[in-house]
Specification:
heterodimer, A: alpha+beta, ten-stranded mixed β-sheet, 14 helices, B: alpha+beta, 2 domains, seven-stranded mixed β-sheet, four-stranded antiparallel β-sheet, 11 helices, 16% strand
């Protein structure tokens, strides 16, 4: 029966080309606009560490004084860690692996005379960082935990920076001059670019940033390297980054299973209780929290308000398009009352009529979906040309391609429901008389 | 032409009428709010920076040794002054639409209990006040002995100028001159009020705080170096900036020019609002597409009704109706449907606005958007129905005599 209905649908659609074209155009525009924004949202909320994200957690402590009032627009100082808290968490070794880190922006002075000094972004971190996040290495490896304690001047370069400075040769063992200090290269990491750069501070351009270097946090602090992230103080700040009232560090931990998670959560609460007893923390120890990686990204609200607004606009537009199609399909189906009555008189059940109309809606949806794909590609192309941080990510993957077609078919069949229901309720006798 | 027969005909097509009206209602709601969003963005984009943008450019240096900053300032200022066409060179910590450097919270008492707000401190050396072209509306410009040396990012005890908006916010209804405020242990006294001086990166703090700036005179030195304000005639500014970048390589080979920040203020402004422009463009795109789809829906339904009523039209024509009567019939029908949609749409527009107000920093939708939206939709409806209505008017009376 499906083949027959398909044939009927195509004939009916061909009979009134203008109306068909209008409906296909309407659904195509609506689907195209919606899928453009859904795709942008999809790529922005992807998993930055597939296969590993389930084991990565972000602890949260609440060291802020009771009378601290957060600016609605400014950064939240409670998101980051102060040096004493971060070091306490890292040195406690209560998790499988743990690392503290902060973003940095350093001047590279190349040995090559044909290169002018230039700035690169990277992170100051501790030894566990590489194993915890599974950073792949081309040459060498990360530094040992002892290098953190000894504040050694060692550096891990990205493949891109390594090639820029030393060509294709193995760079390990060579020296790099960063902000007037020589660092020994211990490893070259493959260009590893989690999207978004989840471990970076919220002020970073997390969708376009990529780290070019990693140096031990202790060495960076020793050399008074500036951090590129938010530095928030809630009592007088004289530039001492080790002050307990200045937050600027991020801490990530790796926990294997739910027992470890529960134990770590308890550890955070115990730590806060202890700090409160010592008079350092003023707020309830129960405010301490442990976020999963994806939960943390959600909490950080990485999707800009503009993108959400655009998504709502696009969906609103799709709704208008669908109402439009409902009206047009209703007109189209009711116009064929005569045909429907003849089929009913010849023994077709209401269900058959409903199916026939459903197939016709589906054909429109499919055609609209194909058109929507084209429009979405144009939309994504225009998004890629925007100046935004996330712009380069706007690409459709296979799941989005299939999603687009499915959404188009679903939307048009939904739009066809009411008209089809009306069409199958036509009373054949009345209509046949007028024929 | 009577409305009664049109209404009774529509009553027989209740569902289709309702759907088109609903579409118009949705279009009306989105149209009003999208226009409002555009107007807001455009308003933000036209913020008055308070400075003489067309004559100003900035050079930003990094990577030099902090200990040599006094020497660097001297070398750079004298080097840049030597460029032909330069009217003035001064040291400044930030410029409007550039990178912010002096953002801090202030309090109205020395104990730090009474929070005033987060403001931008423009810390700038001699000549800068005149170069910026700030307009003093109360009090006076800083005198030459008020440019004091800095130990930290602001002087510990300074006479400053605030903007009109900030003065009204901190001391509503009272004269701001002579008033004091604090930032941690730093103390400030207001000696003048300027008309406008926008925050460097305006967005932080919301649109209402965009003018919350403080002009703080200071001597260039270790805490005020690396950013230079150039003033030149607008027609020569481009060449001056290009020469200035080239000059840095010779007068300050130890420093790195921050290319992104070393621009004319006009270019910095352009880049600062790029995203808002994109968003406004996108909203215009949505409006156009929305109107197009709505028009297509009206055309489709009207065409269908014309075809369905071909025989009735023929009969009406045969018993004396003129072409104009038929044309008007469809026009009135469309007008009624659109009006119904608009009434519903106005309610929806307000509801949508309330929803947006909870999510984004948006004021209430001004009432005059509603009649404008209504006029646009009436016009659109009449335009869309014209084609099918003309086809209807062209139906010859002889159709009435044919059976089916």
């Amino acid at each position: 029966m499906f083949g027959y209905y398909l044939d009927l649908a195509l004939r009916s659609l061909k009979r009134n080309k203008v109306l068909t074209a209008l409906m296909v155009l309407a659904i195509g525009l609506g689907i195209g606009a919606s899928m453009t924004m859904v795709t942008v949202l999809h790529v922005m909320s992807g998993d930055p560490l597939p296969g590993r994200s389930g084991e990565i957690y972000y602890p949260h402590l609440d060291p802020l004084p009771l009378d601290y009032h957060k600016s609605e627009y400014g950064p939240d100082p409670g998101v980051n860690f102060s040096w004493p808290d971060a070091m306490a968490l890292v040195s406690a070794h209560r998790a499988e692996r743990q690392a503290a880190m902060a973003g940095g922006h350093l001047l590279v002075k190349p040995e090559r005379t044909d290169l002018r000094p230039f700035y690169v972004d990277g992170h100051y971190t501790t030894a566990d960082f590489f194993a915890m996040f599974g950073v792949p290495f081309v040459h060498g490896q990360g530094w040992a935990a002892s290098a953190d304690g000894a504040r050694e001047h060692v550096v891990v370069l990205s493949e891109t920076l390594g090639r820029k400075l030393f060509g294709s040769a193995d760079a390990t063992g060579r020296m790099v001059r960063l902000n007037d200090t020589d660092f020994r290269v211990v490893g070259v990491a493959a260009d590893w670019r989690p999207q978004p750069l989840f471990y970076a501070d919220a002020s970073a351009r997390v969708f376009s940033a990529a780290d070019q270097f990693f140096v031990p946090l202790s060495a960076a602090l020793d050399l008074k390297f500036d951090t590129s992230g938010n530095v928030s103080a809630w009592s007088s700040f004289d530039g001492d980054m080790k002050s307990p009232t200045v937050t600027w560090l991020q801490v990530w931990v790796q926990l294997k299973d739910s027992t470890q998670v529960a134990a770590y959560r308890q550890f955070l609460i115990d730590y806060s209780t202890n700090q409160k007893r010592l008079g350092r923390f003023e707020r309830a120890p129960g405010n301490a929290h442990l976020y999963g990686l994806m939960e943390w990204l959600d909490h950080q609200k990485l999707v800009p308000a503009d993108v959400r607004l655009q998504l709502w606009l696009a969906l609103g537009f799709l709704l208008v398009c669908m109402v439009n199609i409902v009206a047009l399909l209703l007109a189209k189906f009711l116009r064929r009352s005569g045909e429907v009555s003849v089929r009913r008189a010849l023994g077709a059940r209401r269900r058959d009529i409903f199916q026939q109309m459903g197939v016709e809606s589906m054909v429109i949806g499919l055609a609209g979906g194909v058109l929507g794909l084209v429009i979405a590609q144009v939309g994504l192309w225009s998004v890629r040309r925007r100046p935004d941080d996330y712009a380069h990510l706007a690409q459709m993957d296979p799941s989005m391609l299939i999603g687009t077609l499915l959404l188009a078919v679903f939307a048009s069949m939904l739009a066809g429901l009411l008209p089809a229901w009306r069409a199958c309720r036509i009373t054949p006798a009345l209509q046949l008389k007028t024929l | 032409m009577q409305i009664q027969p049109v209404l009774s005909a529509l009553r027989r097509h209740r569902l289709a009428t309702l759907l088109i009206a609903l579409e118009i209602a949705l279009a009306c709601a989105v149209l009003c709010n999208a226009c409002f969003l555009i107007a807001n963005r455009v308003g933000l984009m036209h913020v008055d920076s308070g400075v003489d943008e067309r004559s100003l450019a900035t050079i930003s240096l990094t990577g030099y040794d902090d200990a040599k900053s006094t020497d660097l300032n001297a070398r750079v200022t004298s080097g840049l002054r030597a460029i032909p066409g330069v009217q003035s060179v001064s040291v400044i910590n930030q410029v409007p639409f550039g990178e912010h450097a002096g953002t801090a919270g202030i309090t109205l008492d020395s104990a730090g209990k009474q929070f005033g707000g987060v403001v931008d401190f423009y810390v700038a050396g001699p000549e800068s006040f005149k170069a910026l072209g700030l307009q003093v509306v109360e009090g006076r410009a800083p005198s030459s002995d008020e440019y004091q040396p800095l130990q930290q990012f602001v002087p510990s005890n300074a006479n400053v100028l605030v903007t009109r908006t900030l003065a009204d916010h901190l001391w509503p209804g009272v004269d701001a001159l002579g008033k004091e405020f604090w930032c941690d242990k730093f103390h400030f006294r207001v000696v003048g009020v300027v008309a406008n001086l926008a925050k460097a990166e305006g967005s932080e703090g919301g649109p209402s705080t965009i003018q919350w700036s403080v002009f703080t005179p200071a001597q260039p030195g270790p805490n005020l170096s690396g950013r230079y304000l150039l003033r030149a005639d607008p027609s020569q500014l481009w060449r001056v900036l290009r020469d200035a970048r080239a000059a840095i390589a010779t007068v300050a080979p130890d420093a790195v020019v921050d290319q992104l920040q070393s621009q004319t203020i006009t270019d910095l402004r352009e880049r600062h609002f790029r995203q808002d422009r994109v968003m406004a463009g996108m909203l215009i795109g949505v409006i156009v597409a929305l109107l197009l789809v709505t028009a297509l829906g009206i055309v489709g339904l009207a065409s269908f009704w014309v075809a369905q009523r071909r025989r009735q039209i023929g009969i009406r024509r045969a018993i004396g109706a003129t072409r104009g009567d038929i044309l008007h019939y469809f026009q009135i029908e469309n007008f009624l449907i659109v009006t119904f949609g608009i009434v519903l749409g106005m309610v929806l527009a307000y509801a949508l606005n309330l929803l947006l107000m909870t999510q984004y920093e948006l004021p209430r939708l001004p009432l005059y958007y509603l009649p404008i939206g209504a006029l646009i939709l009436w016009g659109l409806g009449q335009l869309a129905v014209l084609g099918p209505a003309m086809r209807a008017a062209a139906v010859p009376p002889v159709v009435a005599t044919r059976s089916v």
